[in-house]
Every structure is written in structure tokens, then in C-alpha cells.
Amino acid sequence: MESVDRSDESSVTENDLRVRYGYKPKKRKTLKKNIKNAVQCNVPCMKNKLFNLIPILTWLPKYPFMEYALGDLISGITTAIVRIPQGLAYGLLAGLLPINGLYTGFFSPLVYTIFGTSRHISVGVFSVISLMLGNALDNLEIDASVYFDDNSPSSRATSNNTILSHSNISDANSTLPNVENIGRYTNAQNLTIILSLTVLIGLILLILGICRLGIVAMFLSDPVVSGFTTAAAIYVVTAQMKYITGIPLQRKSGIFGLISTYIDLFSRISEIQWSAIITSAICLLILVPIKYVNRNYSEKLKNIPIPGELMIVILGTGISYGAKLSETYSIKIIGSVPKGMPSPMLPNISLWPVLIGDAISIAIVTFAVAVSMGKLFAKKHGYNIDPNQELIALGLCQITSGSFQGHSGGGALARSVVQESSGGNTQVAALVSCSVMLLVLLVIGPVFKSLPVACLACIILANLHSLLLQFNKLPRLWKVDKYDFSVWLMTFIFVIILGVDLGLYAGVIFSLCCGGLRQSGAKVKFLGGLEGTDIYRDIEYYQNVHEVPGIKIIEFTQSPTYANKSSLQKITPTYFEHEVNISPTDKSLLSKSNDDIENCDIQQQILTKNVTTKIKYIIFDCSHWNMIDTVGMSTLLQVITDLKLAEKEVFLTSVCEDVHMKLSLYGMVDDEKSAVKVFPTVSLAVAAAKLLLEMESNAEPESRYSFI
């Protein structure tokens, strides 16, 4: 490698460095070139795109059977045990029947295994998504006679208050008296609305993925997602109150909907059904301790959780059937559960215009939660996920699930932790889980007919622990970052007051505003050299720092943009009219004499000895600048021009490639008439400025290479 000529080191600029080491600028592709590359594709290119679109073709042929098979088998069975009760419960939460949640638990992970890039997240029913679906159904105000044809199969089923037809079901036309309709529509109409919404959500995700717009996740920062899901968990708890108390409450969403629901609940407390209360209390007394043991003694359990939810389903079904709880104590049960695979259904496209707002918000939440979880597992296990491919995978999951009478789902944190911690290495565990779900759908499903709805409500409540524990993040956020704390808290408050959808939008807007405030709060700091090194740090935080007379080193702590224009404009010639350079030794003496009136002479001697020096060179440390916009460039140019008019030379240092390219295109650097010189490091800029100062004073330089 060619070495730097030490005799010229103090005058090496960024341009000198580029010439000496053969800088090769990156060629910018034109739109025409990008379109041409996208259209033209040879056989290897097509193969590569196919493997990127269907990741299972990449990893399944290389699957280490002997190493991974046992772990994936155990993980798949364990996860399926969790999927079954969750599917039954969250189907009900989404405004559908429990069987529809089981369909989601089968089709979604099956499709994700083929197209997804995460090895560990468990895709299927998810409480927050089910809640948002239920709220969308509740908020929908349409004339059923306009959107549902009286002669359609849907409407015929509607007239009989039945679920839509299934293949291999002998009791398809039987009524479901124990699970009341959600809202103003019948079960069949609910299903048509939800599957239409689910397919629309899938199309939105698919289009975003094809357009490579995985960046949309940035609008949902971690504090926004955390605050939103915590507030949504409270809505989920509220939605279960009618099953736990037995009071037939109507869902209320929108502004102050949550508060209105609790007012309604307490005003009708006399209608409480004690049989439902006792059933719920027994279920929670079983589930809560089991959840506690699973969380705190996972190592002793060999990461195989005790299947508390499945125990509740089995015990609840058995006791309810044997004791005839529905007939004797009027306890609501889930009713008929069809056996067999569902027949495909087409969405009602005419509903899409009125569902588009809900679809967008659910799509963004689905993607943001899944990707954030996927990144956590990928970092832990040393692999990468592709956000754009995740959009495609999740979109296809929704479309497939909706087409087969399921509903929208996503990656559930608690279930994903179960899949990963119980030995899951790849999505083969999801295939095993789907096999168990298929057995339930084909054979076991009707057994759950007598299961009390209160048991499902308790299963939902017990699985909200991880979401509600997110309150524990607040003290740490307050200490670490007040902006993130504010975003978390305000998103939570917005969702509680405004409702799930409006609250989410308000939280995102508030987060963007905080980002703007954070960017606008750029600070100007002065740097000094640490004694005996070429390292420069903020002079406010270090005592043993030295500022070179006649030179000021500035650190502007944010990338120059329109947001912090006013902060950058504060750097004027008046900033540098005069300075008193005090050595570290004199600083120490000065601090000791501050409280001693008799030592005023010492202070005067120190200030007199350190003569005021006119600042001639301003050095910007640009290491924090990762981007710059046109407003930032014009403001920076104006600041430099004003400083030059005040006979002060300006150097830029540590400029990243993207910023340097923009400054060059703007005409600020890279030629003899440029407004400013660019140096690779602060040290080289200081050395050059010291040399120029020595030359101006006609003094013999002490050392051409002394940076401090």
C-alpha cells in the first residue's frame, strides 16, 4: 500500500487523498437504466429472483435433518398446542366464530413457511389484529340489502343465521344459538365482511412488497408500536368483559368508546351472571399460575411450556358436556364446530371502498410487529430477514387465509417465543404445527362444541401478559430518551381516548412531530484536543483539553436540514469575535481561586497571561452528518460566506460520501473556486490551520506534524 508522504501530511485535503489513492465515484443509475435492468433478465437472474421470491427453495434442500429435525418436531407440536385454543379464542375476538380462528391458524403459517424469511416467528392469530378486525366490523355502517344479494349463498345462510357452507359438513345449516352475532350483522355477513377486509389487507401488503416499500415500517417506531399494542391490550381485556361477566354488552369503539363501555358495564352490574363469573375465576386460577411457572422456570421445564390453554379447553369442554352447563346454568358455549376443510370464498369487492382505511392501518401494524419480532430473532441467531419479502409473505398469508374463511393474522410474540424456546430452528416447526391443526380440523373440531365461551375469554386474558408488561419500559425510557417516553405515553393515551385506528394515526403523527423537534434541536459544541492525542472532544465535558489559539473547532450535532436551519444560522461571526485561551494548569488554578477573594490577583494574572486571540480558522467536524438537503446546503453556504466576509477561513472535516457528493454538485467543494476546503480528519485540518497561522506570523514552525 502506498504510504502518505509525511512531509506533506499537514496540507493533505480530501481532494489530495482522492487523487493519491485513486478515488472511484459510484456511478448513479438513471431511471432508464433501472427499468432496463428490471426488464432484461437472463436464466441465472430469473433463478435468483425465483429463489428470493420463494425462500423455502433456498433453505429446505440444505435442511440439516439430523441436527434440526427433533427440535423442530417438538417445537411444532408444542406450538400447535398453543395455536388450538388461541385460534378458537381469537376467532371470536375478531367478530367471527371460533372455527374461523382455527382456519387462520392452519393456512397462515403454511403460506409463511414457503414465502417468509424469518425462521422463528409464529404467524397466525394475534390478539391485536383480531381486535382491530372486530373494531372495523363494529364501525362499519352499511345497508346490508345493498351489499348482500338476497339470492347469494351468503344471504341464504344469513336468513338461517348459519355459518357459510363447508365441504364434508353434515350440519352446515344448523343454527349457532350460543354465540351471538357481533354488531348489527349476522354471522354469515360478518364472515363476508371480515374475509373481504382480510384479502384487501393482503393486497396492500403484497403491493407494498412488490414496490419494495418495506421502509414504511419506519413510520411505526418501537415506542409507537409498544404504546399502541399496550393500549390495544386494554381494549382486548374490555372486549372479554361480556363473556366473563355474562352481561350482554355491545362493542363500542371510536372516541371515548372504551370509557363508554365501562360506564355501561358498571351501570348494568346487577345483570351479572354468576355462573360465568365462577367459570372465569376457575379458569384464571388455573391459567395464571401455569403462565407464571412457564415464564420463570422455563429452564427447569426444558423450555417446554405446560399447556395451560389446552388443559382449559379439555377440562372446560368435558365439564360443560358432562354437567350440561349450557342447559342448567345458561352458560354460553361456542356451539357447533364444523368438521372438514372450508370451501374457498371470493371477497365482496364492493365492500373495499368502505374498508380501505381499516385495511391500511391493520396492514401497517401487521407488518411492523412481524418485522420487529423477526429482527429480534434474526439478531439472536445470526441471520438476516428481508423486510420487502416479509411484506410479500404476509400479504400472501392474508389473501390465502381470507380466501378460505379465515381472518387476518400476524406474528404473535408469546407464541413465537414458545416456538423458538422449545427448540424450533426453522419453519419446519410451523409445518409440524399445521399438521396437528389439520388433524383438529378434520377429526377433533366438533368435540369442542360444549366449550364455554368464558374459557376462551380467560385464555385471551392470560395471553396478554407480555403486552401489558410493556408498562415496565416507561421508567427506562424516561431516563434514556424523553422523546421516546413522550411518544410511548401519548400513543397509549391517544388509543385509549380516540380508539384503535384514530389513536394509531395520532400516535404516528405525534412521533413524526417529535422526530422533527429532535432534528430541530441541533446543538453547536466546541471541541478541544485531548492532551497528547489527536482526539477531539467537547470542551464542556473535559478539563485536560487544549484549544489552539486562532482556531475554533465546531461540532454541529445534527445533519443540516430544513428542520434545524435556525440552529445552523446561529453560527455567525459574532460567535468568534474573541476568545481567551487558558491552559489546563491555569484552569485548575482558576477553579481553586474562584471562592477565595484574596486570590483575585491570581485570577487577573491568569487572564492577563492568556492573551485574547482573534479567531481566523473555523473547523467543522461533520462526522455526525449522514445527509443534507438543499435548505441545509444553502444555509451552510450562507454561514460560510458570512464567516469569510469576517476574514475567517472555514474547513470541513470527516464528511461522509453522500454529503460530499451533494456538496460537490452544489458547487461548494472540489474545485479551486469552492467556498470551503474539505479535510479527511479534524487532525489534518488543525495541522493545516496551524501551519497557515505560523506562516502568517512569519514564525518558524515548531513542528509540521504537531496536531495539538
Q: Can you characterise this structure?
A:
The chain is mostly helical and 708 residues long. It has two domains: 58-516, no CATH class; 521-578 and 613-696, Transcription Regulator spoIIAA, CATH 3.30.750. It is built from 31 helices and nine strands. The strands form two sheets. Strands 3, 4, 5, 6, 7, 8 and 9 form a seven-stranded mixed β-sheet that branches. Strands 1-2 form a two-stranded antiparallel ribbon. Helix 14 packs antiparallel against helix 15 (308-323). The longest helix has 30 residues, at 352-381. Mean pLDDT is 83; it is low at 1-7, 151-182, 606-611 and 703-708.
Oligomer type? single chain
Q: Which term fits the overall shape?
A: elongated
Major β-sheet, in short?
7 strands, mixed
In total, the number of strands is 9
Determine Rg (CA atoms, Å).
Answer: 33 Å
Mean pLDDT: 83
- Low-pLDDT windows of residues: 1-7, 151-182, 606-611, 703-708
- In helices, the fraction of residues equals 55-70%
The total of helices stands at 31
Q: How many domains, as an integer?
A: 2
Proportion in β-strands: under 5%
Termini Cα gap: 28 Å
Tell me the structural class: mainly alpha
